[in-house]
């Protein structure tokens, strides 16, 4: 038979058939094993060799392989024999075929990976891994070496060395019996001891100079702890011991042999007792005690032991398991109560301050007449009168007075102000506005290389005490001209010359000299008439003026515009009833007039008003111009005839062409001179618009022959006739679309000869020739624009006539500073010098005023504020009830995740109210900014302070105060205040992000859609829907870095769960796992709490800056 393990199948078959009985036993054994298992086959070979040795007369010299299934082989240390392999499953720290060879290294490694102890040194000293000790390196010494025993690599282990068994303990003991030490002649007796609580078994080995002499196994053990004595007792019912042959005490030359005694006498019970304070132990077993007493004179073996067991810190005896939530302490209750009281106190004081703000509170000041000398107040009077005109002041009034004094809104008259302020509207400074050759063109939509003319060489002049009306049909260029004269920013190219009192003035200076009233009234609906005008006065009047002087101006303007009687009524809007449209228009005018502008521009001030309101508005404007030498320029569309004659100057435009510019009383004369006459019963303004309106009549056949004949037949007529009437070319008149005014013109239609006279006039010969040439095109359809014909004729006649020369002469006089002496207001006594303009409200004053206005807007329209607070409180109560008394387990962790995610989602989407809030104020801001009310930074900061703080700071505090005690969230390590900080940082960051979108995107619907997409994207990468650590796509893995939800969600969970111990059944073990471990499985980084808070703060700064940049450079007036 071959000696190796590779057996030829033919040889095996022949050998087995020779003597079946001799091989039957091992063959049966062979059949029990799998043919494919090498170990089973080896065992089979060992069995056959063993059988052959017993039956072979030739005495086979090949020894059998080790197989613990055979009676001649034994597993030492009472290790178990693996029936499948025939090998011994050695206990930790032992190896070799029979488990007698000690191992070094550490218990953290498997036996197969640990190095065997050298036979030359017979010791593991210097061969144990760091943190391990003992005869076979099984005793831990440091916590870090126990990490590998934890179910997860992120869990930290603890080396428990107190000696009390928890799961499986290893101990190394020195024998302290003096007799035993003396008999061994200086050789060190030691014991290695280990117990498994779950298997209820223990084993120990007796060593002399680290060479094992015998070993014992104990089972049916109980493990007790005596709290009073602080001792442990391991009691095992059964015990058995065996010697290691050839060692001291077990047959070594010159030594006694106790092998038979150990095997036959030691039966148990065994007891291992230790004092945990001194680590002194004793091992007792009846038979062994007799032996020790007989030979050595001691009652039992005494020991001094050191133990080590790797555990999770929650398994250490005495550790209080957090199975139930701890009740709130008194300190935590006080913290919550004080926080709630602080919020309520701040809110109450804020409301009281706003309600008593001197910036908007009307006082007892009355309009003074000419003989009144009570305009100013002494310091003593003010101190006694108070801001409300009473002799007593409330604490709030005193507080607000101090604040206004600090910010420069002093109630004491400034001694630098000389004279009475009653006549501020009749300032000695006046302004004459002249403009020449104003042109404006924009790029053509159809052809990028060409430009479209909007205005072409428009000129005019208006002096103090005069009102210039810019008249024309829709699209004539009225508003464009007005914007250019007011130095508004235009997107196209402007050319021409604009002068104030004959001087070129920069945009910065002229913007402070003028007032501009838009066509639409952009006013805060929650302010009263008085408050709206006072707001303009406080922001724009010189800083040197006192509060009472500014207030006096407001009252005088209100009286002048006849809206003093409605000063305490709210302005209102489409949803809240307020003042009428005409009153709103006068309020808009008052906001500009209160600054006493030298020139006031108004864009269609009568648009949208009924005839009565329109008349009231114009009458107010006329009084301002005539009585106070103010210069007014306005656009108007189809004014009433009585209104039209109230104006002083007229600029008539048609398709950007200047048809007429000059005194309005001479326009009829100009028309009559050029062959036009307005019917006596017809509105001259309507006549002018219809005359020049670009009304194109398309697809009408005009045989050139009939047109020529008609023109030639009437060449000698001198009667004037308006060209834009319905001319009767036979039946062709029925092809014209009748307008509202056409019936009034038809009785002039028969005067065909007047048309010929007009077109054959000496001054219009060229125009007539052009028209006749165009009429020879042929018998085909084409479009005729009668308005264009009229415009071109009148424009040419005006530019070439005396009226234009008079206009240029008047402009030259102003340039040379020669006032018109015929002016009824005696302008020669007035100053045409450009006045030195004083600075308005300072930045801090602007900020205070705007904050007060915004706060007042918030609390007067409390729906949004109250809805936010009430909804937050109700939601917090609901969530507190739903998640009441959350447990510290895995389901509790899931509940915490859901709770925090819902809170963040709620606060995230409720910030959408900021979009509509700014959308309502966008036009107001544009108007006020363009009229130099304040700087963008002042408005932006006031917006943040007045809306972000009450709407985004207080609700998270309210929610936290309610949620924390009801749900039972973590209050340790200041977690409550950290949670508030995180929620406020998140809420403000999201609010600023949404506000930035609302600023950049003008359309409200588009901004809402974009905001939803941004928030949904941020939600997706928050860490709940996808583990951000598992994203492998390079383009997507960094999306979480721009997700505000991710940083807020991670920091909230870390703040809550990091210090908690949660129960979890993991890897088949019932263990208590730190919350940090669960967080790591979800892809959150436990160390990132403060990092996340910093990132949230960074988001606040970024969107704060982006929002301001958008407000400054995007939300601008561009016409």
From TrEMBL:
<keyword id="KW-0472">Membrane</keyword>
<feature type="transmembrane region" description="Helical">
    <location>
        <begin position="1067"/>
        <end position="1089"/>
    </location>
</feature>
<dbReference type="InterPro" id="IPR043926">
    <property type="entry name" value="ABCG_dom"/>
</dbReference>
<dbReference type="Pfam" id="PF01061">
    <property type="entry name" value="ABC2_membrane"/>
</dbReference>
<dbReference type="GO" id="GO:0140359">
    <property type="term" value="F:ABC-type transporter activity"/>
</dbReference>
<dbReference type="InterPro" id="IPR000742">
    <property type="entry name" value="EGF"/>
</dbReference>
<dbReference type="GO" id="GO:0016887">
    <property type="term" value="F:ATP hydrolysis activity"/>
</dbReference>
<feature type="domain" description="ABC transporter">
    <location>
        <begin position="433"/>
        <end position="680"/>
    </location>
</feature>
<dbReference type="InterPro" id="IPR027417">
    <property type="entry name" value="P-loop_NTPase"/>
</dbReference>
<dbReference type="Pfam" id="PF00005">
    <property type="entry name" value="ABC_tran"/>
</dbReference>
<feature type="transmembrane region" description="Helical">
    <location>
        <begin position="1008"/>
        <end position="1026"/>
    </location>
</feature>
<keyword id="KW-0067">ATP-binding</keyword>
<feature type="transmembrane region" description="Helical">
    <location>
        <begin position="899"/>
        <end position="919"/>
    </location>
</feature>
<dbReference type="InterPro" id="IPR017871">
    <property type="entry name" value="ABC_transporter-like_CS"/>
</dbReference>
<feature type="transmembrane region" description="Helical">
    <location>
        <begin position="334"/>
        <end position="355"/>
    </location>
</feature>
<keyword id="KW-1133">Transmembrane helix</keyword>
<dbReference type="GO" id="GO:0016020">
    <property type="term" value="C:membrane"/>
</dbReference>
<dbReference type="InterPro" id="IPR050352">
    <property type="entry name" value="ABCG_transporters"/>
</dbReference>
<dbReference type="Pfam" id="PF19055">
    <property type="entry name" value="ABC2_membrane_7"/>
</dbReference>
<dbReference type="InterPro" id="IPR002049">
    <property type="entry name" value="LE_dom"/>
</dbReference>
<dbReference type="InterPro" id="IPR003593">
    <property type="entry name" value="AAA+_ATPase"/>
</dbReference>
<dbReference type="GO" id="GO:0005524">
    <property type="term" value="F:ATP binding"/>
</dbReference>
<keyword id="KW-0812">Transmembrane</keyword>
<protein>
    <recommendedName>
        <fullName>ABC transporter domain-containing protein</fullName>
    </recommendedName>
</protein>
<keyword id="KW-0813">Transport</keyword>
<dbReference type="InterPro" id="IPR003439">
    <property type="entry name" value="ABC_transporter-like_ATP-bd"/>
</dbReference>
<dbReference type="InterPro" id="IPR013525">
    <property type="entry name" value="ABC2_TM"/>
</dbReference>
<feature type="transmembrane region" description="Helical">
    <location>
        <begin position="975"/>
        <end position="1001"/>
    </location>
</feature>
<keyword id="KW-0547">Nucleotide-binding</keyword>
<feature type="transmembrane region" description="Helical">
    <location>
        <begin position="864"/>
        <end position="884"/>
    </location>
</feature>
<feature type="transmembrane region" description="Helical">
    <location>
        <begin position="1095"/>
        <end position="1115"/>
    </location>
</feature>
């Amino acid at each position: 038979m071959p000696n190796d393990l590779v057996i030829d199948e033919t040889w095996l078959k022949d050998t087995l058939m020779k003597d079946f009985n001799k091989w039957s036993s091992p063959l049966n054994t062979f059949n029990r094993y799998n043919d494919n298992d090498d170990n089973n086959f080896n065992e089979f070979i060992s069995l056959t060799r063993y059988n052959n040795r017993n039956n072979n007369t030739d005495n086979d010299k090949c020894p059998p392989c080790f197989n613990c299934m055979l009676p001649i082989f034994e597993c030492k240390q009472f290790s178990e024999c693996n029936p499948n392999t025939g090998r011994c499953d050695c206990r930790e720290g032992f190896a070799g075929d029979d488990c007698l060879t000690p191992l070094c290294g550490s218990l953290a490694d498997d036996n197969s990976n640990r190095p065997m102890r050298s036979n030359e040194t017979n010791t593991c000293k210097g061969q144990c891994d760091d943190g391990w000790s003992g005869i076979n390196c099984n005793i831990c010494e440091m916590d870090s070496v126990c990490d590998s025993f934890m179910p997860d690599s992120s869990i930290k282990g603890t080396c428990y060395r107190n000696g009390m068994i928890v799961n499986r303990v290893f101990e190394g003991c020195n024998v302290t019996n003096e007799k035993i030490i003396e008999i061994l002649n200086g050789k060190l007796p030691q014991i290695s001891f280990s117990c498994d609580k779950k298997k209820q078994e223990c084993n120990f080995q007796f060593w002399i100079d680290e060479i094992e002499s015998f070993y014992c196994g104990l089972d049916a053990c109980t493990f007790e702890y005596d709290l009073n004595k602080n001792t442990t007792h391991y009691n095992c019912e059964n015990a058995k011991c065996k010697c290691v042959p050839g060692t001291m005490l077990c047959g070594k030359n010159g030594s006694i042999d106790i092998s038979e005694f150990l095997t036959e006498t030691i039966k148990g019970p065994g007891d291992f007792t230790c004092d945990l304070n001194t680590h002194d132990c004793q091992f007792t077993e009846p038979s062994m005690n007799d032996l020790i007493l007989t030979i050595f004179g001691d009652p039992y073996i005494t020991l001094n032991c050191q133990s080590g067991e790797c555990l999770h810190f929650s398994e250490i005896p005495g550790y209080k398991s957090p199975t139930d939530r701890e009740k709130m302490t008194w300190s935590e209750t006080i913290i919550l109560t004080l926080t709630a009281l602080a919020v309520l106190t701040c809110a109450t004081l804020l409301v009281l301050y706003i309600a008593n703000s001197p910036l908007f509170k009307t006082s007892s000041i009355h309009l003074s007449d000419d003989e009144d000398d009570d305009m100013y107040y002494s310091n003593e009077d003010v101190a006694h009168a108070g801001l409300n005109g009473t002799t007593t002041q409330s604490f709030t009034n005193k507080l607000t007075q101090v604040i206004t004094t600090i910010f420069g809104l002093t109630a004491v008259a400034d001694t630098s102000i000389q004279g009475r302020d009653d006549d501020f509207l009749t300032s000695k400074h006046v302004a004459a506005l002249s403009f020449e050759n104003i042109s404006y063109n924009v790029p053509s939509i159809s052809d990028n290389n060409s430009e479209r003319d909007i205005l072409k060489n428009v000129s005019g002049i208006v002096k103090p005490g005069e009102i210039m009306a810019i008249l024309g049909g829709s699209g004539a260029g009225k508003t464009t001209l007005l914007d250019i004269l007011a130095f508004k920013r235009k997107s196209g190219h402007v050319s021409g010359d604009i002068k104030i009192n004959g001087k070129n003035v920069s945009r910065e200076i002229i913007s402070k000299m003028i007032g501009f009233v838009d066509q639409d009234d952009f006013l805060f609906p929650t302010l009263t008439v008085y408050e709206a005008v006072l707001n303009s006065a406080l922001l724009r009047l010189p800083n040197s003026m006192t509060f009472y002087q500014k207030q006096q101006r407001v009252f005088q303007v209100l009286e002048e515009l006849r809206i003093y009687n409605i000063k305490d009524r709210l302005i209102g809007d489409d949803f809240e009833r307020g003042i009428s449209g005409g009153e709103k228009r006068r309020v808009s005018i008052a906001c500009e007039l209160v600054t006493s502008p030298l020139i006031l521009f108004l864009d269609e001030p009568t648009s949208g008003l009924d005839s009565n309101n329109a008349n009231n508005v114009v009458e107010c404007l006329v009084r301002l111009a005539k009585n106070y030498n103010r210069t007014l320029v306005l656009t108007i569309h189809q004014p009433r005839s009585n209104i039209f004659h109230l104006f002083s100057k007229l600029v008539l435009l048609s398709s950007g062409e200047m048809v007429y510019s000059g005194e309005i009383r001479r326009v009829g004369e100009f028309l009559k001179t050029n062959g036009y006459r307005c019917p006596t019963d017809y509105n001259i303004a309507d006549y002018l618009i219809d005359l020049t309106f670009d009304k194109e009549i398309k697809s009408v056949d005009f045989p050139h022959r009939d047109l020529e004949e008609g023109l030639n037949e009437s060449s000698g007529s001198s009667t004037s006739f308006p060209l834009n009437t319905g001319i009767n070319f036979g039946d062709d008149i029925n092809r014209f679309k009748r307008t509202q005014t056409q019936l009034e013109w038809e009785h002039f239609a028969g005067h065909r000869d007047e048309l010929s006279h007009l077109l054959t006039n000496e001054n219009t010969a060229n125009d007539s020739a052009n028209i006749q040439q165009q009429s020879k095109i042929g018998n085909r359809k084409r479009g005729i624009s009668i308005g264009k014909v009229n415009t071109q004729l009148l424009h040419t006649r005006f530019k070439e006539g005396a009226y234009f020369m008079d206009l240029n002469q008047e402009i030259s006089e102003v340039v040379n500073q020669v006032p018109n002496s015929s002016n009824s207001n005696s302008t020669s006594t007035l100053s045409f010098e450009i006045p030195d303009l004083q600075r308005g409200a300072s930045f801090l004053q602007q900020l205070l005023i705007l904050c007060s206005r915004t706060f007042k807007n918030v609390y007067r329209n409390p729906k949004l504020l109250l809805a936010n607070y009430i909804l937050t409180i109700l939601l917090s109560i609901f969530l507190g009830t739903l998640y009441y008394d959350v447990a510290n387990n895995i389901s509790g962790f899931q509940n915490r995740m859901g709770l925090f995610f819902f809170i963040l989602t709620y606060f995230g989407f409720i910030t959408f109210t900021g979009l509509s809030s700014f959308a309502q104020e966008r036009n107001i801001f544009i108007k006020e900014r363009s009229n130099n009310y304040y700087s963008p930074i002042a408005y932006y900061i006031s917006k943040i302070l007045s809306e972000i703080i009450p709407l985004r700071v207080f609700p998270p505090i309210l929610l936290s105060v309610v949620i924390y005690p009801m749900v039972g969230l973590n209050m340790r390590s200041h977690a409550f205040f950290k949670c508030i900080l995180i929620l406020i940082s998140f809420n403000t960051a999201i609010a600023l992000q949404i506000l930035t979108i609302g600023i950049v995107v003008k359309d409200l619907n588009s901004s809402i859609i974009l905001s939803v997409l941004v928030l949904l994207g941020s939600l997706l990468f928050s860490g709940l829907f996808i583990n951000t650590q598992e994203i492998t796509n390079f383009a997507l893995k960094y999306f979480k870095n721009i997700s505000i939800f991710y940083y807020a969600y991670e920091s909230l969970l870390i703040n809550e769960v990091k210090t908690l111990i949660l129960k979890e059944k993991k890897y088949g073990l019932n263990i208590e796992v730190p919350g940090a471990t669960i967080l790591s499985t979800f892809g959150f980084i436990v160390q990132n709490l403060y990092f996340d808070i910093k990132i949230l703060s960074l988001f606040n700064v970024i969107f704060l800056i982006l929002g301001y940049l958008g407000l400054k450079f995007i939300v601008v007036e561009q016409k």
